Amino acid sequence: MAAAEITAPPLKPYPVIPILEVGAMANSKPYVANAAMQQALGFPGELVEGWHDKAIAKLGDLLQNYRGLKVYLDACVHCGACTDKCHYFLGTGDPKNMPVARQDLLRKVYRRYFTWAGKWFPKLVGAEDLSKEVLDDWYSYFNQCSECRRCSVFCPYGIDTAEITMAAKEIMDSIGLGSKYTNEIIGKVHKVGNNLGLPGPALLDTLQSLEEDLKEETGLDIRLPLDEKGAAVMLITPSADFFAEPHVYSLMGYAKVFHAAGIPWTLSTHASEAGNFGLFIGNYGQMQKIAMRVREAALDLGARRLVVGECGHAWRVAYSFWNTLIGPFDFLDPDYPLPQHICELTYDLIQRGALTFDKSANDRYVVTFHDSCNVARASRMGGLPGGQFEIPRAIVRAVANKFVEMNPEAIREKTFCCGGGGGLLSDELLDLRVKGALPRMEALQAVVDTDGVNFMATICAICKAQFSKVLPYYKFNMSMVGGVHQLVSNAIRLGPK
Amino acid sequence: MSAATVVFALLFYAATLLGAAGLAWRIRDYARTPAPLKIPTTPAPTTTGGVVLRMLREVALFESLFKANLWIWLFGWMFHVALALVLARHLRYFTEPVWFWVVWVQPFGLYAGLAMVGGLAALWARRFLVERIRYISTPSDHMMLALLLGIGVSGLSMKFMSHTDIVAVKAFALGLIFFDWQPLPAHPGLFVHLFLVIVLIAIFPYSKLLHAPGLFFSPGRNQADNPREQRHLAAWAAKLEKAKV
Ligand code: SF4
Ligand code: SF4
Asked: pLDDT (tens digit, 9 = 90+) per residue, B151-178?
């Protein structure tokens, strides 16, 4: 197969709703998982005999178990409010990337097999048989949704396309049609404990060399402990933090915060991954199995608190689902939020005056903040709704002098996905990822032009990886993106006060 | 008693049965289907009281739609509020003596009828004029608007063009309620109006009109954001958990 052409749309000074380009992205799809990857997760190895009936049965099953899915498939009135809200639509113009049109790919099948009107008057209500063409469309377009929930903010019924995408992926997995990228990674977590497939000894090695780097930089013995029993805090962080750039700078930032505050902490080999791709494929069992490693590790190490590093979807799973999936947390310290975000921890320390900063260390930066979708629209920090927006910003302001907000239509609850979430961060989808980044790139370009912004802070491993890759396509420097704790790391003052 | 009276009376009963039974079945189905995970669209209220307020804002003001698109909000909200007023105005045909607030709402109900038709027409125009909306529209989307518009126009025609015997219509309506049938005046506008209303009642639970009860069951809107404070466990998830231990 010839490499697909990867093109970045031109940046416009004002966001413009594109003219429809039917079928523009029909050929964008991830590699299909092979039999071994599928079977490792208990899915059929390839598209099964009788996939049609099995898919319908699976849909019926999901409808019984997920109220959201049922209500969302019923309630849409085709009002069109969501049609211009998806970054993938804005970047590609493909009408099937309009949230409602994406939903309709599943909804038309639901109507056909599960509603009276669709059984008797399919044409009238837009119901359709599940044909091979429809299945192909599912595979293409449900793998062009990053499950970012932006559309759900604007829908008058709160219809969340992410839930529908997850259901569709769950159905496809159950008939043997899975995405290689997500399913291979989930297999690695089950086997090794993290998405990168980084085994314990290699992890230890990496952490030790990072400790040496920290020693060189600060002259202090700042530790990155692994599997230490009895440490109060167990930190669960995306494995990219261990050696991808810019992620690793944030890891050093966490270490410095723990060091400065004198909080004994540890990482765990068994739970060396905060990410949970079980969410992306909409599979409750997989999500629970991955999360269970955290509970097991915490019990094993005798940790009293769980703290989660910078990662968007990981924080959603931790904040919204851990208590359900792997709780109750009665063996942990009830005086702290369970789990706690690293930003909550740092913010708390700042509030109490436990950390001191030299803000000028970040003076070379004019900083802006990119809200990551899962943090913004699927979780919270602190005690008040919206804390997920205020707390990271408060940290940035505490450690840097120059901070600028992007267009209000592109931040906070209305934030645009980086373009790489939802299990789409793989190379064969790069064209989609570049195009999906368009709305964020436009918002960024605006503050680059007006305020000279040269650093976009974010708290998500996927955002960091995605932006590092796509920024150059829009003629930005790839090192413009980095973590909030990267800025903390630059400014924090350690050693005797 | 005319044939029309009998036919309309029977159709009304049938439609009401079909509509009410279907709606009850749908609502029961929604209520019994578990929501295994906490998925409110955040920032979300952290308490039940807050959720009630959020739902109220959605129902009364269409808060999310307002954020999304001012035109759709304007026409959609105008139509729904007008419809509510029109329905309130119509209560005078079903109450004896007429409740005081129904009397009070009468003049507004009339303007509302015009606003309702205007809102519907604008919503329909969007289905032709805006490329994105045209793309997602199905025949039933058009028919639903045609149906509502038909009801509105036929209703207004009886006010502004050809009056019908309103006293007799009220007697007919009350007769339906108390199973004491009274003759329905023979009036083409009235027949059209009533027939379309009957269709609407009958298909309510089998069509996208389900968005009305759906809103109340939408986990994205009706869940409180308190997963850390309160453990949320659906029945089937709990069973899964027990099986493991
Ligand atoms: S969840 Fe995000 S990616 Fe998916 S359809 Fe909605 S806006 Fe688009
Ligand atoms: S905003 Fe909601 S109801 Fe309107 S078209 Fe989109 S999904 Fe359907």
From this structure: 999 999 998 988 999 999 999 999 999 9
Nearest-neighbour CA in chain A from B172: distance (Å): 32
By residue range, what is the domain housing residue A84?
Answer: 36-178
Place of tokens 């404070």: B229
Inform me whether the pLDDT recorded for A353 exceeds 80. Answer: yes
Of A178, A201, A216, the domain-final residue:
A178
Query: Which residues 369-388 of A are in CB contact (within 8 Å) with B?
Result: 376-380, 383-386, 388
**pLDDT tens readout for residues A33-49:** 999 999 999 999 999 99
- ipTM metric: 0.94
Q: Which of residues 7-66 of A touch B (CB under 8 A)?
A: 17, 19-20, 63-66
Which residues lie below 8 Å from residue A35, measured CB to CB, with a gap of 6+?
A45, A46
Q: What is the pLDDT of residues A183-231, one digit of tens each?
A: 999 999 999 999 988 899 999 999 999 999 999 999 999 999 999 999 9
Among B72, B58, B158, which Cα is nearest to B119's?
A: B72
* Interface touch A327/B231, C-beta < 8 Å: yes
Same-domain pairing of A366 and A229: yes
Q: How far is B153 from chain A (nearest CA, A)?
A: 22
pLDDT level of residue A4 (50, 70, 90 thresholds) = low
Is the bond preceding A44 in cis, omega lying within 30 degrees of 0? no
CB A432 within 8 A of CB A391: no
